[in-house]
Amino acid sequence: MSAVEPWHRAVADLVARSHRVPPDALPTAVTAAVRELGVAITIYVVDVEQESLRPLPEPGRPLPDPLPIEASLPGRAYTEVRARAGQDGRLWVPVVNGTARLGLLEVRLPDGADPDDPALRDGCRLIAGLIGHLVTSKISYGDGLQRVRRSEPVAVSAELLWQLLPPLTFALDTVAISAILEPCYEVGGDAFDYALDGGRLALAVLDGVGHGLPATLTTAVALAALRAARRTGGGLMDQVVAVEAALRSQWRDGRFVTAVLAEVEVDTGRVRYVNCGHPAPVLLRRGRAVRALTGGRRPPLGLNLPGGEPGEARLEPEDRLLLYTDGVTEARDAAGEMFGLPRLADLAERHIGSELPAPETLRRLSRAVAAYRGTASRDDATMVLVEWSGAAAARVEP
Predict the structure, then answer these.
(1) Which of 13, 322, 350, 377 is the most exposed place for a label (fewest CB within 10 A)?
(2) Contact 174, 266 (CB under 8 A)
């Protein structure tokens, strides 16, 4: 019998148990599935602000304290998407769904077990991978998993918007896409979207005028309209027309959405884009911010004004494209000074130079913006990072 076969049986057992397991009973099902392995597993999920890892409660077991992401061994395992062994017989294993970071497993090993044993680590990755899929599939069937991830009440606008967004991270062999949106409990008009079909990656970053629920409703209609056009085969200009029509059919009060809509041919790196009154995306090459994509200018969507043709650019291998909303660069400190594009570009260069996974680069950029503005204005701040790189794609996989 191979050393990993008992883990295969545990995975099969967990799959069999999972069909009728409610979300809040997932930890109990995991414990039962791995009992014969002699390990004890605690599941941690990342909170929505991505500052700590919070344990899922399990009846009959004391609930551990949340784990900080910054300056901790478990935090390193999470941020680097790599298993880490402690000095106390514990192994920390990232939990992902595909390549979207969800949390961490604390695996308490039996006496005498070697945390560096390849079979043991492979088995832990198998279990962690299945748990990632189960967390994602079960989270819609109850409120418990969502509740664990929150440290404060969520505004109605944020509750609505988060249901509309795709996962924060997605990758395949040649490209990685990651996004982040703050403040996560009170978001208003910002949103992002992506979709990959037939070798073409569609991207969108949107910012609805105003704040709170009215801005979210405006952005939600725009997002639904562009998806409807895209899913019937429409290109960039079809999406522009669809969003214009949808907004004007619902409101006549001058509300609008700024946006960047883009298409990336994953095989060739060709980029086509329109910029509807939005900050220009930044192209990073060899770790340096080399230029902004200033073409494809149009008025904001919803104003029914004429605009120009799409702009074009060409990515080179290892290039990165950073899209963002004005809440990032226009964040102000207590003295009223803006965060600014030069500061954003400088920080992006530094984090990219550290070869961090794309979601960790954005998490650190977002933390820098939040620290800069402190308790000042809480305008939405959204970023999307596209890395046209096989190495970058590999960094987001455990």
Answers:
(1) 377
(2) yes
Q: CA–CA distance from 223 to each of 131, 190, 354 (Å)?
A: 30, 10, 34
Query: Which regions of 325-394 does DSSP assign to beta strands (E)?
Result: 381-388
What are the strands, taking DSSP E only, across the chain? 40-46, 52-55, 67-68, 84-85, 90-97, 100-108, 169-171, 176-182, 190-197, 200-208, 257-265, 270-276, 282-285, 288-292, 297-298, 311-314, 319-324, 381-388
Are the C-beta atoms of residues 187 and 179 closer than 8 Å to each other? no
The CA distance from 308 to 42, in Å, is 55
Q: What is the pLDDT of residues 282-292, one digit of tens each?
A: 999 998 999 99
The first and second tokens of residue 243, run together, are 């969003």
Is residue 334 helix, strand or coil? coil
Per-residue model confidence as pLDDT tens digits over 225-281: 999 999 999 999 999 999 999 999 998 888 999 999 999 999 999 999 999 999 999
Helix, strand, coil percent content, the chain, rounded in steps of 5: 35, 25, 35
Residue labelled with tokens 């960047």:
260
SS3 letters for 162-198? HCCCCCCEEECCCCEEEEEEECCCCCCCEEEEEEEEC
What are residue 364's phi and psi, to 5 degrees?
Answer: -70, -35
**Partners of residue 143 on adjacent β-strands:** none
CA distance 106 to 84: 10
For residues 84 and 77, what is the distance between their CA atoms, to the nearest angstrom?
6
